[in-house]
């Protein structure tokens, strides 16, 4: 890999690390947008696992993608990564989720400014720390990330720009219409009807509704819309196809037609497909946060435990595009059966007729 000099004019070279799950990475995009809004705009490299790398390459706020071989990598892979970071001659490292391995790596790579949240003993490897206390869930995760980006710019002596607004994944004009045209061709959907995408899986990362609850939710929404019933499109992550097909069968038995999103070429192709949705329904999982970054309207279902509240894991779309549901006060924080799905269906059904089905300019 050819790396440019440490500075391109006055542009600092930054290495940003968010090397865990898909949803966490998507909630880093607002922070990346903050960094690129600085004057001069820095050169932004990211260190990500192979799983999220295809999406990182689609991000307009990223100049270079570096692959993290992970905690279990062998000695040669770890040595190669260290050599790459040293050759990158980065001016600063920002770790959005701090781990001892990454802190030690940044220190050994000789990156002069290393900033991370002031949590865990990994902070010993950083010379700039920001106290956030994220476990209190007082702010959305993506806002915590933007605060770290602001702190990095300030430490570099750059003026902190105004916060950018959604969409944090702005697609080229015509992309949404092209994705809708593709689905019209593949599934024979009517372009004039609302399209509701539903992702019933969780990837094992979050408490979620059961298939039965999702079936009941769909039926309740459908009943409230009468003649204006939407097209239902079910999406699935790797290994979730069978469960998604079981939900589709349950809906068929209730007289509701649902389609499964056809297989896509990769996670980036799958993610762009979500731009076709008029509304995206899911638990607090990666695809929900992709839809949020695209500024698609979302309805998310969350547990209410302190570290996983709807506020903490809020999608990063516009406020008017967000609905969130969780167990009520007094219920067990993980008891998703305590969520009033009839009330949720009413709020979702009220929202649907007012959503544009054609592409609009942000």
Automatic annotation (TrEMBL):
SUPFAM superfamilies: UDP-Glycosyltransferase/glycogen phosphorylase (SSF53756)
One Gene Ontology term, aspect cellular component: cytosol
GO biological process, one term: lipopolysaccharide core region biosynthetic process
The UniProt record lists the keyword ATP-binding: no
Keywords linked to the UniProt accession: Glycosyltransferase, Transferase
One Pfam short name: Glyco_transf_9
InterPro entries associated with the record: Glyco_trans_9, LPS_LOS_Heptosyltrfase
Molecular functions (GO terms): ADP-heptose-lipopolysaccharide heptosyltransferase activity
Protein name as it appears in the record: Glycosyltransferase family 9 protein
Organism of derivation: Halomonas urmiana
């Amino acid at each position: 890999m050819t790396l440019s000099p440490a500075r391109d004019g006055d542009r600092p070279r930054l290495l940003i690390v968010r090397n865990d799950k898909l949803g966490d990475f998507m909630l880093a995009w607002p922070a990346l947008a903050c960094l690129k809004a600085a004057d001069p705009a820095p050169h932004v490299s990211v260190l990500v696992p192979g799983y999220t790398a295809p999406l990182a390459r689609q991000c307009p706020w990223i100049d270079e993608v570096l692959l993290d071989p992970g905690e279990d990598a062998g000695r040669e892979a770890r040595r190669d990564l260290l050599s790459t970071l040293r050759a990158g001659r980065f001016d600063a490292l920002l770790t959005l989720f701090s781990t001892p391995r990454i802190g030690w790596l940044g220190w050994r790579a000789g990156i002069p400014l290393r900033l991370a949240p002031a949590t865990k003993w990994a902070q010993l490897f950083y010379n700039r720390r920001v106290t956030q206390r994220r476990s209190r869930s007082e702010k959305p995760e993506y806002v915590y990330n933007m605060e770290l980006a602001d702190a990095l710019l300030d430490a570099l002596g750059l003026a902190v720009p105004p916060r950018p607004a959604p969409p944090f994944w702005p697609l080229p004009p015509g992309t949404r219409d092209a994705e809708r045209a593709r689905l019209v061709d593949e599934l024979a959907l009517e372009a004039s009807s609302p399209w509701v995408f539903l992702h019933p899986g969780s990837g094992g990362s979050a408490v979620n509704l059961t298939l039965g609850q999702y079936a009941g939710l769909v039926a309740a929404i459908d009943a409230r819309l009468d003649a204006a019933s939407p097209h239902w499109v079910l999406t699935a992550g790797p290994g979730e196809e069978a469960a998604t097909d079981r939900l589709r069968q349950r809906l068929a038995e209730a007289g509701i037609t649902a389609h499964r999103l056809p297989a896509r070429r990769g996670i980036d192709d799958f993610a762009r497909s979500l731009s076709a949705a008029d509304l995206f329904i899911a638990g607090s999982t990666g695809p929900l946060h992709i839809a949020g970054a695209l500024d698609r309207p979302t309805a998310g279902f969350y547990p209410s435990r302190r570290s996983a509240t709807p506020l903490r894991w809020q999608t990063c779309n516009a406020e008017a595009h967000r609905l969130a549901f969780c167990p009520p006060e007094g219920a067990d924080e993980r008891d998703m059966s305590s969520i009033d799905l009839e009330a949720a269906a009413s709020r979702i059904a009220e929202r649907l007729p007012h959503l544009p089905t054609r592409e609009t300019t942000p």
